[in-house]
Amino acid sequence: MVDFPPRRKPSRKGSMADVPKDLLEQIKELERLFTVDQAKLNEITEHFVKELEKGLSVEGGSIPMNPTWVMGYPDGYETGTFLALDMGGTNLRVCEIILPEEKGEFEIIQSKYRMPEELKTGESEELWEYIADCLQQFIEYHHEVEDLEQMKGMNKLPLGFTFSFPATQNYIDHGVLQRWTKGFDIAGVEGKDVVPLFEAALEKRKLPIKLSALINDTTGTLIASHYTDDTMKIGCIFGTGCNAAYMEDCGSVPKIASHNLPPEMPIAINCEYGAFDNELVVLPRTPFDVIVDKDSPRPGQQAFEKMIAGLYLGELFRLALVDLHDNKNVNLFEGQDIGKLRKAYSLDASFLSFIEEDPFENLSETNELFVRELSIKANKPELELCRRLAELIGTRAARLSACGVAAICKKKHIESCHVGADGSVFNKYPHFKARGAQALREILDWQGKRDPVDIRAAEDGSGVGAALIAALTIKRVKAGNLAGVRHAEATS
Fold it and tell me: How many CA atoms are closer than 13 Å to the CA of 465, on its beta-carbon side?
């Protein structure tokens, strides 16, 4: 997760009147590099549709298009008490969610625990032990000791585990990690089912918990958003990473044909489309994108994500500024020590957000930001360049993000729907939603005042969504639908 500052009043428009010729030329070059026009948006989207199809095929493609074994939407009348565990890139969140009899309602209590950086590259067992410790703390804090002992003798609490990393799921209560993302790189876990590793840590503590469903945050976003708004047909995440989920027909997923499921039966697909165009067929990469990829833990992977996700926006900005400073034909931060700026990933998306929201004509808040964070005293023309660069990177991210949504709409022939979006970039980066909506208009060629496909703030996918999917899984097992359930006796 990227930490953004509080939202402020709308920002002012910049003026380039006092910018010297050398900087103006560089601004024009940056505009050339980072601008994605309508023709390019359409080209990307058309290729995106083909790659979505390829991902569903038996052979597969760059986009994993993972079947989630979430077989349909909630009807709003799911009931019960559920735990939800949300493991993301920055925090671990534990929730207890009560689904009452009132349609579409829920109650939630939750606690957050910081994910220690050393765990992200440590030993596998240490990670699962830490997660189990957090669950134990949560239960002990929110339930009396007597309740806990009583719970151990009763039915275990069903848990939906939001595991926000690419995983292959042959069953909803199992998941083989395909690859670590979001800064994690723990040896010995990729290619393994993470559920037994997690359950072993629970069993060691004799915790009264059973895992009913392993889900991705994006799938949870889709289900939670549909629970409160049945026009939601796509769930998206635009945050540290990027992804989307939608409901497909089993008959349109050749790679699960061996299960002999009714072709019209719905199944949620977790696209994992941060990996779109790893082959670099259509994405308009800049030299800075190339460096980000080359210096990343996994070069050649997550090509799309590295151009639009919050984890990388600040680094693209930083690399561009360092390149300009080191260019002898450009006078940027001349004579100043840019040692802090040279540190990789020293800036995150919130840095760009702050610049874009500076409401003052003289960019005084941006000036203070550079002094405070980078010990750089920038003049007004330099600040104008920085402001324009932030706009370009933020705008490109929003416009590219629209391509994935548009591709799903085209593939499924969706003409009108709501899209539930979550993530720090969508929720907090200035103008992200408006810029994305404009790109959707250009791609889908809408006429008129109202946007038929409307991207809105999502419900809590990793908390409420996980609980709902656990509820849906238990409900369908009881009804005899065991498709994609490994341990039906533990789930029911």
Answer: 30
Per annotation, catalytic residue among 11, 62, 164, 424: 164
Contact 71, 266 (CB under 8 A): yes
Distance between CA atoms of residues 110 and 227, nearest Å: 20
* pTM recorded for the entire structure: 0.88
- For 373-409, the pLDDT digits (tens) are 999 999 999 999 999 999 999 999 999 999 999 999 9
183: left (phi over 0), alpha (psi -120 to 50) or beta: left
Phi-psi region of 65 (alpha: psi -120 to 50; beta: other; left: phi over 0): left
Residue 475 CB coordination number (10 Å): 18
CB burial class (10 A; 0-12, 13-18, 19+) of residue 62?
buried
| Integer Cα distance of 188 and 333 in angstroms | 45
Q: For the CA atoms of 278, 290, 422, 13, what is the dihedral angle to 10 degrees?
A: -140
217 catalytic residue (yes or no): yes
Of the residues 86, 193, 217, 358, which is catalytic? 217
| Residue that has been written with the tokens 């709308």 in this structure | 10
Q: What is the dihedral of CA 299, 400, 270, 453, to 10 degrees?
A: 180
pLDDT digits (tens, 9 = 90+) for 36-83: 999 999 999 999 999 999 999 998 899 999 999 999 999 888 889 999
Q: Rounded distance, CA 129 to CA 135, Å? A: 10
CA 476 to chain centre: 28
Of 93, 179, 396, 441, the active-site residue reads: 179
